[in-house]
Hints:
A: alpha/beta; Rossmann fold; B: mainly alpha; elongated; disordered N terminus; binds magnesium ion
Amino acid sequence: MADREHDVSTTATTPLFEVRDLQVHFPIRRSGGQVARALDGVDLEWRRGEVLGIVGESGCGKSTLGRALLGLQATTSGEILVDGEPLEDADLRAVRRRVQMVFQDPYQSLNPRQTVGAQVLEPLAIHGIGARGADRIARGVAVLEAAGLRPAARFWDRYPHELSGGQRQRVVIAAAMALQPEALICDEPVSALDVSVRAQVLHVLMTLKRERGLSLIFITHDLGLAWALCDRIAVMYLGRMVETGTAEQVIGDPRHPYTKALLSVVPSPFPRDRVRREILAGELPDASRIPTGCRFHPRCPAAFDRCRSDDPRTLAAVAGADGHRAACWLVDG
Amino acid sequence: MAAEPAISAAGGTARALAATRRTLSLIWSSRRGRIGLSILVVFTLAALLSPVLAPEDPTRDFGSEILAPPSSDHLLGTDGNGADVLSGVLIGARVSMAVGFAAAIISGVIGAFVGVVSGYYGGWIDRTLTAIDDWFLVIPFLPFAIVVATALGRVADDWPGGRVTLLIIVIGMLSWAGTSRLVRSQVLSLKERQFVERAKALGASPGWIVRKHILPNVMPLVFANTVLIVSATILAESTLAFVGLGDPLRPSWGTMLEKANDSGAVATGAWWFFLPPGIGIVLVVLGFTLVGYAIEEIVNPRLRERRG
Ligand SMILES: Nc1ncnc2c1ncn2[C@@H]1O[C@H](COP(=O)(O)OP(=O)(O)OP(=O)(O)O)[C@@H](O)[C@H]1O
Ligand SMILES: [Mg+2]
């Protein structure tokens, strides 16, 4: 059939996930129908084998987006496509086997009454992978050791409260890897950890990525980290992407004033740029009061009249830089 | 390579035993836990061993002088029928505690089930169950229990366990509403926890999440609550037996108090007849209350969170 041929040709290029104009609104209690627009028109493409960084300040909707991708968060409108198929038509259980998630807070993401062993056996039991008993135990041991908990027997019977934050996050990673997923959504996997163990946990993630060819979403508020780990970066502000492109494009040649401001407050990977220190001023973003016009204009040093009235709804392509786009009236495609 | 890990699937019972031992030693470490546990151990042993310990069968041996004060023949004297009071108290402990335990377990099971289903599934299921729950919370216990126990008394005579079984069911069915309320609110907060969301992300079904994540985390609370409820169910049984709804063939402490009252023991000053079952009730209720509070202190999620 012609259809099948079409399918085969699209599979190679269809992104793993595609998000179109996604909205997630939360009703605010006792506000008379007001809503917080946690996601307010997100467009995103997550390609196979890619490490995609999602960067933005606290409260801009990063976790909400990650949760929506796995169907853990009801959406208000817009589309999420998995392999080109709408998520609501897809078999969620199957999607959740292929795509795993590492949560922000390892102190909250383990059941306090399950031992480490039980935590890594659980996903296998849920999906009926392997034979009960020795076979599953062998798989559990393997993923624990791959996540750096060696020897696994030393950790097997421990409860979460007997583990450090880094060890807990390794258990979460191990449990996710037990399902041999093709993709992993990491929601600020190290921001709750001691600085001293962050590098180790990141190393585990990147090694797993390399060895198993994982596609990775890496959510962070740290542009420097995104620069070090990601192939492409999407910068998020108040529920929307404001700049996307390869890591080199976004960090090396930022076009959106918000990206520039973010870069100026983190130690720049480009020492020459350190002279240019813009400080991110103005009100903190509030998802229930998104400014009219460009949502960034109250804090934008470069804002002009048009920014106050017109919303730069679509990301304009940066001339001469393939795939680099920014939602700013100063960027003309 | 590191030595092959000594992991087996059968670590469960050993862990459960260790957890039980840890809980007991935690109860023992507080003063009221120690007092409560001592009382309960003594009375439980007395109840279990009562067929051996009791000198006579208080439902059959009426040979002695009636209302005789304590003597070497009858350490606690005799009752209005000439039966040995000590034997009555020992056998009564067995009936009172059995009814209290069994009714509390029924109440705990119903309360946990209703609370978990209501809290986890929400929506119309929650509204329906909460309405039923409200109804059970507000109906006056005694009048309702008396009506039901009276109405079914004759029928229950043919059941195994007779009217004792009826009392267990009636009391159990009437005392779960508080537990389910407590469990529901615990479940509401549990289901927002990140480990529940993570289980969903792993592909777990709602049934799986309830069994593996919600239930194990509410069980300690249910356990503490059930121990506290035993003191209420024992009191309830005593009350119902006192108003004549006990099983004459299986006399409890409440039944003894009823008989003492009928035979005018209080008026004639036959203290040995009414004081022992009365003190038994008070001590056992106290014991369960003390142990219940000690357990509650251990399992209180807020206290544990801070420690863990
Ligand atoms: N369940 C909810 N109910 C109401 N508002 C919510 C809910 N979840 C998130 N929000 C709001 O949506 C916005 C985005 O939240 P989200 O957790 O996605 O941000 P984030 O970028 O992950 O932040 P952080 O870096 O702090 O994790 C915030 O304003 C938050 O208050
Ligand atoms: Mg977040």
